[in-house]
Design a protein that fits this description.
By secondary structure, the protein is of the alpha/beta class. The protein contains 18 helices and 14 strands. A hairpin with a 2-residue loop joins strand 3 (55-56) and strand 4.
Length: 402
């Protein structure tokens, strides 16, 4: 079994999910100690195995990232023997994660109402584009679609009148996975107290909506829909990126205390007395003028120079790093956010670490992502299949073993 010694050690999870949202949920649970068995389709497995390039010696980098700490089996649900294998796994599982379209699992006889008959303690986590209820429940969903419909693309970009911009990261996929893992953990706590399982339903659409808390607060209060503001904040300023003589920095001088500290760093007393910038409400009412005034000053010195001055004054600020620079940042490394794990075929592989730290049950990344069908024999043996039975299932195409 896998498991990282985390707080969810002992939880049995069956992951019937592919690409990102469902696997992100399984990844979070696995990093916190759950034994996650990833069930891949036959033929081909998870579609992210074919997200090439980039690859590491033929293994898709995207699959390696999203599926570390999991065991992998390959099961053909169109074969009676394959469906029987999955049912046996689900009979004693604590959690199943699936991200199929609505009714897909029901048609296979593997929906929640079917599975809870044999396993009333099962926690059934369904992650989809729009959820299992409502007028859009039958639609397929992707991150791009969810970002557009949730309002995120209307508030992302350089400013009014520009084309809508998607966030660079697939935030609704990842957030839906995190919401799923949060809900599974809460449902597991309930199960430990009562023995009861339940169905969990979340979506990419809702994952996008929760990122609009500030903008929704504005819209609900005023009736006016906020638009894109570049890197600026809709409620506080200055809180955005500024160009320096050799790069970019982000500046968080949004409250009055930090604003006054910033003025000391800028050595521009005329700004302190400017009525346009006295209080936050003044600054937000003249944000473009504020950006112009500060932007001219920040161009006078380098990123390193400004960051040194701002840190000394206690003003929150940071450099704008690219992803590779972030990977090498000393704080990232000190927080174990880039870690190395052993892959059964590739050897040492770097990946992103667990983003929450536990003092008693630390969790973490223990194993690399599975190759296709790597743990089929191991898992089936644990579930009381004999060697001849396993060989027969392989011969019939019901399962694939590496």
């Amino acid at each position: 079994m896998t498991g990282s010694g985390g707080p969810l050690t002992g939880m049995k999870v069956i992951e019937l999910a592919h690409i990102m949202a469902g696997p992100a949920c399984g990844l979070m649970l696995a990093d916190m100690g759950a034994d996650v068995i990833k069930v891949e389709k036959v033929p081909g497995g998870d579609d992210s195995r074919r997200f090439l390039p980039p690859d590491i010696d033929g293994e898709a980098a995207s699959f390696l990232m999203m599926n570390r700490n999991k065991r992998g089996i390959a099961v053909n649900l169109k074969e009676p023997g394959g469906k029987a294998v999955l049912k046996r796994l689900l009979k004693t599982a604590d959690v199943v994660i699936e991200n199929y379209r609505r009714d897909t699992m029901d048609k296979l006889g593997l929906g929640y109402d079917d599975l809870k008959q044999d396993n009333p303690g099962l926690i059934y986590c369904a992650i989809s584009g729009f959820g299992r209820t409502g007028p859009y429940a039958d639609r397929g969903g992707f991150d791009l679609i969810a970002q557009g419909m949730s309002g995120l693309m209307s508030i992302t970009g350089e400013g009014p009148g520009r084309p809508p911009v998607k966030m660079g990261a697939p935030v609704t996929d990842i957030t839906a996975g995190i919401l799923g893992a949060m809900a599974v953990s809460a449902a597991y706590a309930h199960k430990l107290k009562t023995g009861e399982g339940q169905k969990i339903d979340t979506s990419l659409f809702e994952a996008g909506i929760v990122h609009t808390y500030w903008q929704s607060a504005i819209g609900l209060a005023t009736g006016e829909a906020p638009g894109p503001m570049g890197s600026a904040h809709p409620l506080n300023g200055p809180y955005q990126a500024f160009q320096t003589s050799d790069g970019w920095i982000t500046l968080g001088a949004a409250n009055q205390k930090n604003w006054l500290r910033l003025l000391e760093v800028l050595e521009a007393p005329e700004i302190a007395d400017d009525p346009r910038f006295l209080e936050n409400s003044d600054r937000m009412g003249h944000l473009k003028e504020l950006e112009a005034v500060l932007g001219e000053i920040f161009l006078k010195h380098s990123t390193e120079d400004w960051l040194g001055r701002l840190e000394a004054a206690g003003v929150p600020a940071g450099p704008v790093l690219n992803v590779n620079q972030m990977h090498e940042d000393p704080h990232v490394l000190a927080r174990d956010m880039i870690v190395e794990t052993d892959h059964s075929r590739l050897g040492p592989v770097k990946t992103i670490g667990l983003p929450v730290k536990f003092s008693k049950t630390p969790g973490g990344v223990a194993t690399g992502a599975p190759v296709y069908g790597e743990h089929t024999r191991e898992v089936l043996t644990e579930y009381d299949y004999g060697e001849e039975e396993i060989n027969d299932l392989i011969a019939k195409g019901a399962v694939v073993a590496d």
